[in-house]
Structures are given as C-alpha cells and as structure tokens.
Write the structure tokens for this entry.
Amino acid sequence: MRATVVELRGVSKTFRGGALITALSDVSLTVAEGERVAVVGKSGSGKSTLLAIAGSLERPSEGAVIIDGRVLRELSDRAMSRLRGRRIGFVFQSFNLLQRLTALENVAEALMYGGVRCPERIDRARDLLDDFGLGGRIDHFPHQLSGGEQQRVAIARALANQPALLIADEPTGDLDPESGATVVDALLAAGESTAVLVATHSPEVASQFDRRVRLEDGRQVPISG
Ligand code: ADP
Ligand code: MG
C-alpha cells in the first residue's frame, strides 16, 4: 500500500464575518503518494478552503490535518513552514509568477530555496522548462508568455523540488480549453511520488484524475455518475 501524504480528519472551517460562515463541514480525506485527486463542486462549495487547509496555508477550526505523518497542530510555525517549503508545491488560478524574473529565473529561484547550488540550478531549471515544452521560452518574462505558458512555468516551479504534494487551485480557470489541456497534462506529468490535489469546476478536467471528491456547501457528497 502506498504511504499517505496528507490526511484530513473531520475537518471543519468557519469564518466569522458578520454572520458565521461554514466553509467546510466535517470533511475527511486521505491522499496517497502519487495519487491524482480532483476536488469538484460549485463556486463557494469550499474547494479553495479545503486546498488551503490540506496545504497547511490555513488552520482548520475543528479536526486534524496530518502531512507526512505529522499532525500539523503539534508543529511550531517554523517547523510548519519548513515542511510546507520542502514538501508542498502550490499553483494558483492567476499563475503568480514573479514578473521581474524570466521563466528560467522563476524556476531557478525555487531551486535556490530547495538548496540547489547556482550552476546546477540553471541547468535543472532549463531541463524542467524543456520537459514542459517551454525550451524556447526560458528567457521570456511572464508578460511575454501566454496564460497557458505562464501556468506551465508555475507548475515547473512548483515541481522543481519534487514535492510530496502539488496543490493546484483552479489552475485552468483563466485559460481557454486548449491551453487548459496543456496545463492539465503538465500537472499529470508530475513525478510518480508526487500526489496532485486539484480544485476545478470543469468535469472535463476532473475526469482525467484518479479520483474525484465532491463538495456541496462545504460538505463532502457522494460522486454521482
Ligand atoms: P470555492 O473555492 O469552492 O469557490 P471557497 O473555499 O473559496 O469556495 O469558499 C467557501 C465559502 O467560504 C464561501 O461561502 C466563501 O464566501 C467563504 N469564505 C472563504 N474564505 C473566507 C474568508 N477568508 N472569510 C470569510 N468567508 C470566507
Ligand atoms: Mg475557489
């Protein structure tokens, strides 16, 4: 059996604005090493909240989050950011590349945080971008790239340090279907030991994943069809 990378145990999340908003209600989920899981559901159903909690960016109001066998609430902030930095990669809808850095530099910078030395990080960044079909774009700045290309750079960056978990929140949300397809291919090309957890409201995207988790008003519901 493959090791569990992330487990959510009875996780709930409430936000207190004027009224109390329940974004997630008693959600339990495990993602195994290398597994590709899609979280689906309408806008406002809790997908982003679930991903932020699974990625240790937010704390649950109730329940436990276990990453790599470590219960997050027992970790110091420092230990948690170290775990996040080393073990989790993130991709967002709006690409989030550093605008003043080229594609190559965006990926090389991630490798620097991963402790890779200078000459080697340039070579590795180039190889990674090549793998994602961006070999001819390495010296382009984000504004010189299409949305699909920017997102593939973002995926290359998120995967640079071979994380145990890649979290992608609506990675194709701002893209036309054709560019979206290249981005899904890039996500699914993550190494065998990297689990991928994606949020999407596209059935087409979700269908390409090993497993689907559906949310409705913050609750997990059975997948129909
Ligand atoms: P989705 O990603 O599926 O669109 P979200 O997880 O973003 O859903 O949001 C789920 C619910 O929680 C929504 O009702 C949203 O308005 C609410 N919510 C999310 N984040 C916050 C926040 N920081 N403060 C208050 N309410 C929030
Ligand atoms: Mg969302």
Remarks:
- Residues 47-48, 169-170, 199 surround magnesium ion (ligand 2) (CB under 6 Å).
- The radius of gyration is 17 Å.
- The mean pLDDT is 95.
- DSSP finds seven helices and ten strands in the chain.
